[in-house]
Structure formats: C-alpha cells, structure tokens
UniProtKB/TrEMBL annotation:
SUPFAM superfamilies: GlnB-like (SSF54913). Pfam families: DUF2007. Residues 1-64 form the DUF2007 domain. InterPro entries: DUF2007, N-reg_PII-like_a/b. It comes from Rubricella aquisinus. This is DUF2007 domain-containing protein. Signal peptide: none annotated.
C-alpha cells in the first residue's frame, strides 16, 4: 500500500473515499483513531492508502476532482 493523501480534513477524506470506491479502487484510511491520543483536536493528519498498482489512476481521479494527492 502507498500513501495517496494526507490531511486533517475529514470531509476531504470522505470525498476521496467516495471517489475511489466509485471507480472500484480499494482504499484504507490510517490513523483514524489517533484523535483519542491527541484529545480530539484534529492536529494529527489521517492518511489514505491505495495499492501500489492503483496509485497512478487514483491520483489522477483525485486531481480531476480538485484534491491534490500527497506523497510522490
């Protein structure tokens, strides 16, 4: 799995997940429960991961919808 997106914005993560699932690209959100450690103030970003072979297509889908992928 490779990182596709890193953000603190939960709506951006939900939108990215919906876009990827709509194109049948599996994704996994990491660091979802880190808010318990930070006191629920939202300073630690969450990461969206996709399979290595899907990363190029997933990044293109996000860019086409106004989300700039992070990482490579």
């Amino acid at each position: 799995m490779e990182e596709l997106l890193r953000t603190n914005d939960p709506t951006e993560i939900a939108f990215a997940q919906a876009l990827l699932r709509g194109e049948e690209i599996d994704c996994f959100v990491m660091d979802v429960h880190m808010s318990a450690l930070e006191g629920s103030i939202g300073i630690l970003p969450r990461r969206v991961l996709v399979a290595r072979q899907d990363r190029f297509r997933a990044a293109a889908i996000l860019r086409d919808n106004g989300i700039e992928p992070s990482g490579r």
